[in-house]
Fold this protein.
Amino acid sequence: METTNLLAVPKFCEVYNIELGFVNALHEHGLIELVILQNVQYVQHEHLRDLERLIRLHYDLEINMEGIDVIAHLLKRVEAMQEEMAILRNSQFIK
Amino acid sequence: MEYIDYYKILEIEKSATETDIKKAYRRLARKYHPDVNPNDENAKKKFQQINEANEVLSDPANRKKYDQYGKDWKHAEQFEKQNAQRGDPQGGFQGNNDFGENDFSDFFASMFGGGGGRSNRTKYRGQDSNAQLQLDIKDVYITKQQTLNINGKSIRINIPAGVENGQVIKLSGYGSAGANGGPNGDLFITFVINNNTKFKREGSHLYTTIDLDLYTALLGGDITIDTMNGQVKLPVKTETQAGTQVKLKGKGFPVYKKEGEFGDLFVTYKISLPTHLSEKEKELFKELANIRK
């Protein structure tokens, strides 16, 4: 598999100044997807935005892993509902 | 500039301790953080206010100035210098919140709504303000107008095509209000251009890498590629090597303030080799390899 779309987790942690254990904990909670190649963990570029958001929740807002889990779940629901609302609103103009 | 009550924003009393401020900030930040309020402009605005309030009130020196000078706290040093020049041995009125007419000049009294009839007032130009305007790269591909709400005032600005990320424009007189009839400061807007496209932008030139299948690379052919304004057909020469770069003249980004002028699009080929070869294919490749020996 090519690694051009991947960012090594140790490098990511170094750049963002966060603990490797935190990323592992997010992975264990099923909050992020990691790719493992030759014993090195990688995060896919398209998941970086989500990972950055989880980092902010933890480090800026001091929310623990359980809290992040709940928030991430609720956010998914909120975003899905917002999307649905947008579709419904737009469909009114299409008719 | 309107007076912003930072205590009210953080929902705390004026007597709040540093711990109270920290707690209030944390509580409200969790409530209004943009990450937990997706696509909610009101929450975003509120979060900015909370941050601003926290920045001022969590710093004891800034808090003291804010408590003394209110909305003009950023001018505190100017006021104090002015007071010193006027011969006040106290060098201002630190630690004193009683702005009685007898103790202070009209200058300060007028600032805090006190009485007085003397006309010795110094005009101060308002502070310059800075703001960021987030735009998508596609938004600056064409010249457009955008209405901004600045301190409650709607202004329409022209955003020329080709604006660069980090470019700053000045809106004269849209900064903080001046004091005592002084002119308003200026507003500096920094453009933050988000690029979620496959194109890397350098000035007016665009760069992209595309996958080319082995057979087209070897035998040549036509491919269709995406540009910023639609798809174009691109002929590929025979025996094109990996890393070859071709230039599509005028298919790049608009040149800033030069209507109708565009940069170039540089396309670099990446050769994709076929995978999961069948036995037949392997045989044929071996045959090819033998021919090359």
Q: What stands out?
A: Residues 88-121 of chain B have pLDDT under 50 and may be disordered. Residues 41-57 of chain B form the longest helix (17 residues).
